[in-house]
Write a structure and sequence with these properties.
Blueprint lengths: L1 H8 L5 H11 L15 H17 L26 H19 L4 H12 L7 H8 L6 H18 L5 H4 L9 H4 L1 H5 L4 H13 L1
């Protein structure tokens, strides 16, 4: 994964396309292991931390810029990077939901679900884990994405410097689509964008 990110950074892709390429050609490698290897939430967070470190070494992300903005969509002042933590939550929840739905018609699905429940794997307890993490009693399958975004925004709002930009989201006269257009449709280098985000987060 590190090798792929580094090679992609050597291309002349603008920032929008670089992050899309990183998502599709580097971070997608994790898809093959989520659910097959029983990793705990803290281990997915460590992978996210490693990715951020790689991006910082390449000057594609700079400290003390807001790390949460990396994972927000570009139309919400973010950079559109996939969070492996969030990705794993979605994939494990979908897998468990699929097994639950098919357990009465498929012996294989019933067997997998039973085995996972017996050893209390992260996948087996994912629904309860997510309800506790996001403090939600709603149908987590339908609301997970919005809960993840709200989690990022909540973390940002707790930071004195980083929260200033996002305070405008509560202003009814603020047009987020117009204000975020430069992030969505820009044609600047990843390093230049990293510098702009750093300056924005510090002002």
């Amino acid at each position: 994964m590190q090798n792929r990110i580094e090679k992609l950074s050597e291309t002349k892709l603008n920032s929008v396309n670089l992050f899309k390429a990183v998502n599709e050609h580097a971070l997608s490698l994790c898809n093959y292991y989520i659910g097959l290897i029983d990793l705990e939430p803290c281990e997915f967070e460590e992978i996210d931390k490693l990715v951020r470190k790689i991006l910082m070494n390449l000057n594609v992300h700079m400290k003390p810029a807001c790390k949460e903005r990396l994972y927000l969509p570009r139309n919400m002042f973010g950079r559109g990077l996939i969070s492996i933590t969030f990705k794993a939550e979605k994939m494990l929840l979908d897998f468990k939901t699929s097994l639950e739905r098919r357990k009465f018609t498929s012996l294989r699905s019933a067997g997998i679900l039973w085995a996972e429940q017996q050893r209390k794997s992260h996948m087996a307890t994912i629904t309860e884990f997510l309800r506790i993490k996001y403090e939600s009693s709603q149908h987590i399958e339908q609301t997970l994405k919005s809960l993840q975004i709200e989690c990022l925004l909540s973390a940002i709002k707790k930071k004195t410097l980083h929260s200033k930009l996002f305070e405008s989201l509560n202003n009814e006269t603020f047009d987020i689509q117009t204000s975020s257009k430069w992030i969505v449709k820009e044609n600047i280098s990843p390093k230049s964008e990293a510098m702009f985000f750093l300056l924005q987060d510090r002002s």
